[in-house]
Design a protein that fits this description.
By secondary structure, the chain is mainly alpha-helical. The protein has six helices and two strands; from the N terminus they run H-H-H-H-E-E-H-H. It has a two-stranded antiparallel ribbon. A hairpin with a 2-residue loop joins strand 1 and strand 2.
């Protein structure tokens, strides 16, 4: 198996903490697909700003920020008791699920903070 980030020992320690024995290729590829879909820069390698390491790193971190703080994930939603009209579920971001935020942030809020 080839590891692109981290050492073999560190990857296995992280997997052990999560209760997994081997890396989940499906989950890794799903995350890569989501990142590619949300940012066209890795796809358009012919553009100069796509190849600059500092710009690529900034775009990657921006994508992670929006993904974790601004985008509600359907798998993290929880049912409202009682439902409010047609609204049956409360949306959540990963940051909300971890208790780091109490509301969905907008991109404007992130940029102005």
């Amino acid at each position: 198996m080839r590891y692109t980030h981290g050492s073999r020992k560190r990857v296995h320690q992280a997997l052990e903490c999560l209760g997994y024995g081997t890396p989940n290729t499906s989950a890794i590829e799903r995350r890569n697909g989501t990142a590619r879909r949300r940012s066209a820069h890795p796809v358009r390698k012919s553009l100069a700003f796509s190849r600059r390491p500092d710009t690529k790193l900034a775009l990657d971190w921006w994508g992670v920020t929006v993904y974790n703080w601004c985008r509600a994930h359907r798998s993290l939603r929880y049912p409202l008791m009682p439902p409010m009209g047609k609204k049956k579920y409360q949306p959540q971001t990963p940051a909300m699920a971890l208790g780091l935020a109490n509301h969905l942030f907008t991109v404007r809020e992130i940029l102005l903070s």
